[in-house]
Specification:
Blueprint (H helix, E strand, L loop, with lengths): L7 E10 L2 E11 L5 E4 L6 H8 L13 E4 L7 H4 L3 E4 L1 H8 L5 H6 L16 H13 L15 H13 L5 E5 L7 H16 L3 E6 L11 E6 L2 E7 H4 L2 H8 L5 E4 L2 E4 L1
Length: 263
C-alpha cells in the first residue's frame, strides 16, 4: 500500500504581491496530524503563507514547477477541504467578532462556511451534538448563548476554534493565536491547544512568539524573508544561535516545562 500524500506540500512556491515576490521558493511538506510550528519575524511571509492555504493567493504561474498541493491535489472545493484542514486566522476571528450572533450559532455556522446561521441553513441534531462536543472540549459551553461581540479576545478565539473543529479536521492551523492576549489568557489558550492535540487533531502553529510553541510541537520551520531559513526537529531548531540569526538580534534562550522563552 502506498503512503498517503502529505497534508500540505509546497514545491518551489513563489508568491507575487504588489509586483514583487514575498514567498521565494518555499519547499516543504507537512503530514496529516503532524504538530509543527512555523516561526518567523514580522514581515517574513507568514500571513502570505496562510493566504496560500486558504486559496486567497496562488503560486506564481510564471515560475516553472511552482505548486502547492493539499492531500495530493492542487484544486479543491472548499467544502471538500473542511474535513482535512481547519483554519483559524486573525482575519477570521476579527470578522466573527464584529457580529452579534450567539456563540453557538458561530460554531454551528462552520458547517455552512458562513458566519452565523442564515435562513436557508439546515441545522441537524447531529450538527448540534457535534457543536456541543467541541465546545465542551474547548471549555466554552457556558458561552453558548452569549453574543460573540461581548466576549474577551481569548474567549472569542476559542469560539472560532470550535467553529473550525466541528468537521473533525486532521489538522488545525492557528495564525498568531495569542496575539494581543494578556498573560492569563495566553496560558489558558495554550492549554486549550494542548487539549486539541491530545484529542487527536494535529496543530500547525504560525507565530512569531516563541512561548506559543507548546510541548507537543515536534518540528519547527523557520521563515525569513519569504524563504525557509531552517526546518528541523524542535530541539535542534530552538537554539540561541538559530534564533539570533532568525530574528537578527542577540537571543538568550531557556526551556521550562516544555516551553521555550527568549529574552
Amino acid at each position: 500500500m502506498s503512503a498517503p500524500p502529505p497534508l500540505i506540500a509546497y514545491r518551489n512556491v513563489f508568491i507575487r504581491r504588489g509586483g514583487r515576490h514575498v514567498l521565494n521558493g518555499l519547499d516543504f511538506s507537512i503530514g496529516a496530524g503532524e504538530n509543527v510550528a512555523i516561526l518567523g519575524p514580522n514581515g517574513c511571509g507568514k500571513s502570505t503563507l496562510i493566504k496560500t492555504i486558504t486559496r486567497e493567493l496562488y503560486p506564481d504561474p510564471d515560475v516553472p514547477g511552482s505548486s502547492l498541493s493539499i492531500h495530493g491535489k492542487q484544486v479543491w472545493n472548499i467544502f471538500d477541504l473542511r474535513p482535512l484542514l481547519g483554519i483559524v486566522s486573525y482575519d477570521l476571528v476579527d470578522a466573527c467578532s464584529r457580529n452579534d450572533y450567539p456563540c453557538l450559532e458561530i460554531v454551528l455556522s462552520g458547517f455552512h462556511s458562513s458566519i452565523g446561521i442564515w435562513p436557508n441553513h439546515v441545522v441537524t441534531p447531529e450538527m448540534e451534538t457535534r457543536a456541543a462536543e467541541v465546545m465542551e472540549l474547548l471549555e466554552i459551553p457556558h458561552l453558548a448563548e452569549r453574543r460573540i461581540n461581548e466576549l474577551s479576545s481569548g474567549e472569542a478565539r476559542r469560539v472560532v476554534m470550535a467553529r473550525a473543529l466541528v468537521h473533525g479536521p486532521k489538522s488545525l492551523i492557528l495564525d498568531e493565536p495569542t496575539n494581543s492576549l494578556d498573560l492569563h489568557a495566553m496560558h489558558e489558550l495554550r492549554e486549550i491547544v494542548r487539549k486539541i492535540v491530545a484529542d487527536g487533531t494535529g496543530v500547525i502553529l504560525v507565530t512569531h512568539h516563541l512561548p506559543d510553541i507548546i510541548p507537543e510541537i515536534s518540528r519547527v520551520i523557520m521563515l525569513r524573508e519569504g524563504r525557509v531559513f531552517l526546518d528541523a526537529a524542535k530541539t535542534e531548531a530552538l537554539t540561541s544561535a538559530n534564533l539570533s540569526a532568525l530574528f537578527r538580534t542577540e537571543v538568550d534562550l531557556a526551556e521550562r516545562g516544555g516551553y521555550y522563552h527568549a529574552w
